[in-house]
Amino acid sequence: MDQTISVTVNGRSFERSVEPRLLLSDFLRHELGLTGTHVGCEHGVCGACTVLLDGVAVRSCLLFAVQTDGRDVATVEGLAGGPQALHPLQHGFWEKHGLQCGFCTPGILMSLVPFLEENPDPTEEEIRELLSGNICRCTGYQKIVEAVQLGARLIQEKSA
Amino acid sequence: MSTRQFGQPIKRNEDPRLLAGRALFTDDVHLAGMLHVAFLRSDLAHARIRSIDLGGAKERPGVAAVYTADDLGEYWQPGPLLVPPPPVEQLEFHPRTQVPLAKDKVRHAGEAVAVVVAESRYLAEDALDDIFVDYEPLDAVVDLEDALKSGSPLVHDDLGHNINARGTQTKGDWAQAEDAADLVIRRRFHYDRGTAAAMENRGIVASWDDKSQQLTIWDTTQAPIAIRNGLAGMLGLSEHQVRVIAPFIGGGFGPKIMMFYPEEVLLAWATLQLGRPLKWIEDREENFYATTQERGQVHDATMALKNDGTVLGIKDVFLHDAGAYAPYGLTLPISSQCTLLGPYVVPDYHSEFTSVFTNKPIVTPYRGAGRQHGVFVMERLLDIAAEELGIDPISIRRKNYIQPDQFPYSNEIIFQDFTQLTYDSGNYEPALDRALELIGYQEFIREDQPRREAGGKRVGISVVSYIEGTGIGPYEGARVTVEASGKVSVATGVGTQGQGHYTSFAQVVADQVGVAASDVHVVTGDTDLFYWGAGTFASRGAVVAGNAMHAAATKVRDKILKMAGEKLEAAEEDLELIEGRVQVKGVPQTSISIGELAVEANPMRGAVRPGTEPGLEATEYYGPERGATASGVHAMILRVDPETYLLEIEKYVVVHDCGTVINPLILDGQIQGGVAQGIGNAFYEQLHFDENGALLNASLMDYLLPTAADVPNIVSDHMETPSPLNPLGVKGAGEAGAIPVGALFAQALDNAFRDIGLEVREIPLSPNRLFELVTEASARGNA
After folding, report:
1. What is the ipTM of this complex?
2. Please, what's the b/e burial string for B183-198 (b: 16 or more CB within 10 A of its CB; e: otherwise)?
């Protein structure tokens, strides 16, 4: 039996009828067409599918779409606030070559957003600890760490 | 441009799209009326198929079709042999290649037996549960040595044995080296399997359009052109009716250039049957079985030396795990055989391999592609020899390096590109010295290590060398076009999987055409936009496609200057290209933009001189006579936790020489990422198969990929010994980071446990395995 859910995604309200077993990742990607959220392992390890649920980073492959009924979801598409714009964190990644194939990147960005809100000036160790929940197979993480450091600085400059 | 862009750390053109989640990956393709595909895969590694009962699968609501091997008729064919055997004299070769769906027998766990097409992936997977396959389980071939014993079960019954190939290559006279030696050391080395684990699993979308009679395929492949040609041939279509697009790809690392995966063969066929677009996206569990793997080898190696450490010769006899099918022929064992010789003078060499079929997933090249094994054996032999001769590991390497005046240096045997293994250029000792300086070798040995060991710590240091054959042929091409806007478009046939081609190729072109790299739009991996090419593999994109870019861009530059010379009534040598304009040197007011020239080069009316080609455009191809040899030195300081046997890499240094550098930012990224994969390979990642060929750790919870907490910052430096083989002087860099890491771990651990005489002869390791090895070594020491 399908269930009707109302969910806000990137500030826009959607009402959809979905199967209870539909994963949030599939709902976002294939029902709403928000394909920036990627799926790497479907068992909650790699972090590629990370989105924000009511501001908290969650693995969208471990949630059902129905669990988001009445709640607020944010994906990478909403990060910059405009189609041609980039969020300061995204600028950090661009400047520092913090991505190669870019497949894991949206999940990493979404993991970082609430982290940097709570911890605007993290140490390298704190950054690495946070990143250890996301697997990147291309970069070796070094340039991601540099990207986060720059991104954190750019966020602070922007809000200053 | 007044400043040269080639060689600059320019940030990447492709990144804004990737960062914003707007880049197109295969699973992002959504077509109206699209159906979804799921595969029923064997749980058993080796079994006869008695019968397949589809149960109610076909009748289940939402299911459009169910196919087994019998439904494919004449279309059911084993895949092509991708690489024919090279001209090695002593060779025995029994090719067997993968099939679209198992018929009669399954040969590895995860081999596809049936396929379901349904309105959604969820429904397709529901229907898989309806199907019952009656298997007769057979004993599995898992261990390489057991596979060769008489009475072993057979992977391919018709062969009568499990030998895929045997090959021997020799240089000089090993027997003579052995006779003349002061010291002969013999050891057995094991290297086991891992998986590339690209973050994006494989995927295919296939769409047949009946009205236009066109088949379009989005595929996570590293070789779109070969896929187009192959599928067109299999389906009886013209190559012009098939368009293969390799869009953004979430990591390749080699396994995405297997051809043809059963899923590619089946989706292309099934969309023609059903007249609807089809999508299949591999899930992570499937990736552990259905995507190819690499790295099982066992080496029995012997090294002959003089007392002063001079290497006289090496004899190496090894087994190579080919898995259930071997579409790549001899590529991997030959690569191991050649890479073993490394940057060293080895006058006499005898190398003999047996490639063995096993009931395990298919083996094809994965980043490094046979090179890891060769480097591991050579570097371990040198370490062990140094220990026995009482000389230090640095001196023995220094003593045996090929010297700068010895290039081009021939090793006489045949390389994987079918040419004689010849190093084009190299300068090894300065890289070694630089690595020693950066790691602080002398201070560590003299001061840090003794001090810290006295404080109860276990710390070790290591330094290893390697070479990497890169940039092999056959060829690639590129088309460079100046558009009316004054921007430049570039197309090439190679696909891209994160290597930054949109930027590095743009840099190569930008300097010639006189525009900013950000104004060069690169298209890769769309067969409708560039017809010819081989693919992205063997660290060859920058070398082979890069030089094709350079050739095409140079020709376009010539056209621009010729035309501008006529327009501006100036001699070509008096012109310069600056920021998208051609001007008389030092006279910016006498100038014309390349966009205006592009418009004039495509006249709409009037007459042109006979023989005039339209547009400011050129297509060029580049094929090197042989590969360019990159090289490097890695060094590491390692601390072992005495309780948990977890490792902490305290310092990691890479000094790398890949000739001329196009973009140091991208190169650093390639090296760092390669090292991370090497670290995984050395200490985290091992595929564990049981005696039945079942894979015991087929999830990312059980197969550990290194995380940001495990991979250290890497200190790197680059030496530039340009390749004389190509105009840009570049050598490949994609695989170098990953290749020597196993050997580096082994040496550092031996060093940390030298008091108990630890000798690591296998990779991958783990805390558990290290504990066992240390316990064994201690017991031997106390016996």
Report:
1. 0.98
2. ebbeeebbbbbbbbbb
